[in-house]
Design goal:
It contains 12 helices and no strands. It is mostly helical. The radius of gyration is 18 Å and the shape is globular. The longest helix is centred in the middle third of the chain and has 28 residues, at 135-162.
């Protein structure tokens, strides 16, 4: 069983865990703080989705826990490697599961709940969810993937607004800020497929990857929230005006129109 008190204890542990890195590595405090804030906001986002789906209280608390812990591996990753790029370091989801197990954080939960949390964390960073006989694992993996995307859109659009005054290469995965768009990235979006991380060569590729996440959202609530927050509008404003980007905009327009004909994107 998972209760509100259980989740409050998890939040307290999470705060203490993050703060130890801030104290030990004050020069890294800004990026550690960004990821900690992201984790808390993803926890809020996943609760919003879960409540919209009318899950029961215990299921909402389970979702909230997954949201809080989904990126708990980011802190040791950044301290150890100085990057949030999994390809240049270690898979942060796998690191996160290791952290939870080493600290025995979920010891009071049932084996079923532990498995759902661990597998959902692992699935949140994969190109696709690994299919499982346990439908709850698949369901909660979908929840965390949507919630994570929603807050990353918030985070990166807020950053793009202040980028010229306060550049943060870590948030850009150290990618070069060039006008070029890789063919494979463009072709993926034209096919309405999520851009693979391995395809990225420039910051514009990364921005198009972020736009392509639209095609991987699992719940109507998530699509509605993305539309209402106008996150993709804000990303488009930072991209060059050319034929390729115009084509991408039209694909996004059609996707939203097909989702809800009343939208005029």
């Amino acid at each position: 069983m998972i209760t509100q008190n259980t989740v409050e204890l998890y939040k307290s542990w999470f705060d203490n865990y993050v703060n130890q890195f801030v104290r030990q590595y004050p020069e890294l405090a800004e990026n550690i703080g960004i990821k900690a804030d992201h984790s808390r906001k993803v926890s809020n986002e996943i609760v919003g989705i879960a409540e919209n789906l009318k899950l029961n209280k215990e299921e909402v608390l389970l979702a909230e826990t997954i949201g809080l812990f989904h990126d708990v591996g980011r802190f040791i990753q950044f301290v150890k490697y100085g990057t949030f790029s999994d390809s240049k370091s270690q898979n942060h989801a796998e690191l996160g599961v290791e952290v939870l197990k080493e600290n025995n954080i979920l010891k009071d939960l049932s084996k079923e709940y532990q498995q759902i949390i661990y597998e959902s964390i692992l699935n949140h960073s994969r190109a696709e969810i690994i299919q499982d006989k346990n439908e709850k694992i698949i369901f909660f993996s979908k929840l965390i993937r949507d919630a994570d995307k929603l807050d990353i859109w918030r985070l990166i659009t807020e950053y793009y607004v202040v980028k010229e005054q306060k550049e943060n290469k870590t948030l850009e995965l150290e990618l070069p800020d060039k006008d070029e768009i890789s063919d494979i990235v463009f072709e993926s979006i034209i096919a309405k497929k999520v851009v693979m991380k391995e395809s990225m060569k420039t910051l514009n590729d990364f921005k198009l990857l972020q736009i392509s996440w639209l095609f991987d959202l699992n719940f109507d609530y998530s699509i509605d929230r993305l539309y209402n927050k106008k996150y993709l509008d804000k990303i488009f404003e930072t991209l060059p005006e050319n034929l390729q980007i115009s084509q991408v905009k039209e694909i996004v327009n059609k996707y939203f129109r097909n989702h809800n004909e009343s939208f005029t994107y």
